[in-house]
Specification:
This protein has about 150 residues and is mainly alpha-helical. It has two domains: about 110 residues, Non-ribosomal Peptide Synthetase Peptidyl Carrier Protein, Chain A, CATH 1.10.1200.120; about 35 residues, no CATH class. It contains four helices and four strands. The strands form two sheets. A two-stranded antiparallel sheet has the order 1-2. A two-stranded antiparallel sheet has the order 3-4. A hairpin with a 6-residue loop joins strand 3 and strand 4. Helix 2 packs across helix 4.
């Protein structure tokens, strides 16, 4: 059984999948930083200095009564919250990752497209059915005159 597992784990596509997962996790970290540190701050400034990661709705106060200055304080107090700002960041991250994957798949599909078939260089003689050059006006096999 151990031998079978080793053969399975060392297959090329399993190793490729593992590499893809590792690279994907790293890419996810980069996208999270892009959203949290680059994209959302200017959007927050345009909307009146809003920090999306601190947008939440208190459902139930925690041990210390609200209002809470930040989401971290609400969580520390044990308050029940709906974190719609964090959700907005996650949606934007997803859209960026989905768009990046779309661009990657699109590029791979373009690379994998088969080139159009080349123009034929031969044709069949209508009289003897031998293969002859496309520009031939007379069949070299049966000497019949060919149209065009």
């Amino acid at each position: 059984m151990l031998k079978d597992f080793k053969e399975f784990a060392m297959r090329g596509n399993v190793v490729d999948m593992a590499v893809g997962i590792i690279v994907g996790a790293s890419f996810g970290t980069i996208v999270k930083s892009l959203v949290d540190d680059v994209i959302m701050p200017p959007i927050g400034m345009l909307l009146g200095n809003v920090d999306f990661s601190n947008l939440y709705l208190v459902l139930k106060d925690g041990t210390a009564a609200g209002p809470y200055a930040a989401l971290a304080e609400a969580k520390k107090a044990g308050a029940g919250t709906v974190n719609y700002g964090v959700f907005a960041n996650s949606v934007i991250s997803f859209i960026i990752v989905a768009f990046a994957v779309f661009l990657l798949v699109r590029a791979l599909n373009k690379l994998q497209k088969e080139p159009p078939p080349a123009d034929p260089t031969t044709k069949d003689c209508p009289y003897c059915l031998s293969s002859i050059a496309i520009k031939a006006t007379r069949c070299p096999h049966c000497t019949s005159a060919l149209d065009g």
